[in-house]
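Regression check, protoporphyrin IX containing FE case 134:
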Amino acid sequence: MASPMKKFAASEVVLHKQKENLYLLIHDKVYDVSKFIDQHPGGQSVQLDQGGFDATEAFEEVGHSDAAIEFMKTLQIGVLDRQPGDEKILVSSGSAYKNYTKAPSNPSQWGSLRFLFAFVVAIAVFAAWTGVQR
Ligand code: HEM
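Current build output:
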C-alpha cells in the first residue's frame, strides 16, 4: 500500500510561492512544481501566479489533458489538511491566466488577421484597377 501522504497546513502551503520553491494546491492536493515550472507548456507565469493560492479553478478552466493529469501525480508531495477559515488564506488569485493566448491556433486571432489580409488585398486590387483605367 502507498505510504500516507504528508499533510500540509494552508499557512505552510502559501509560503511556497517563489519560482524555485513553488507549491501548487489543486483539489486539496499539494504539488511541488519547482523543478517542472521551466518545462510547463503553459509557461512559468501562469503557475507562478497561482503560488500561495488555491489553483484548482485555474487548472480546471484551462482544461488539462489526461496525460497532464497523469503526470502531475509524480509531482504530488502531500494533501491539504483543511481547517475552518482556510478559504481566507487561499483566496483566489484573480485571472491572469485568462489572458493566455494560444499563439497561432487561436481562431479569434486568425479571424482578425484574415480580415486585415482581405482588406490589404482589396486595396491592392483597387489600386491596380484604377492604375489600369488611366
Ligand atoms: C502540477 C500542475 C500542472 C501540471 C503538471 C501541468 C501540465 C501541463 C501540460 C502537460 C500542459 C500541455 C497541455 C496538456 O497536456 O494539457 C499544460 C498546458 C497549460 N497549462 Fe498546465 N500544468 C499544471 C498547472 C497549471 C496551472 C495551475 C495553470 C494555471 C492556469 C496552468 C496553465 C496552463 C496553460 C495556460 C496551458 C496551455 C494550454 C494550451 O495552450 O492548450 N497549468 N500544463
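Comparison notes: The pocket of protoporphyrin IX containing FE is lined by residues 24, 31, 33, 40-42, 46-47, 50, 55, 58-59, 62, 64-65, 67-68, 71-72, 75, 97, 100, 102 (CB under 6 Å). The chain is about 40% helix and 15% strand. No diff flagged against the previous build.
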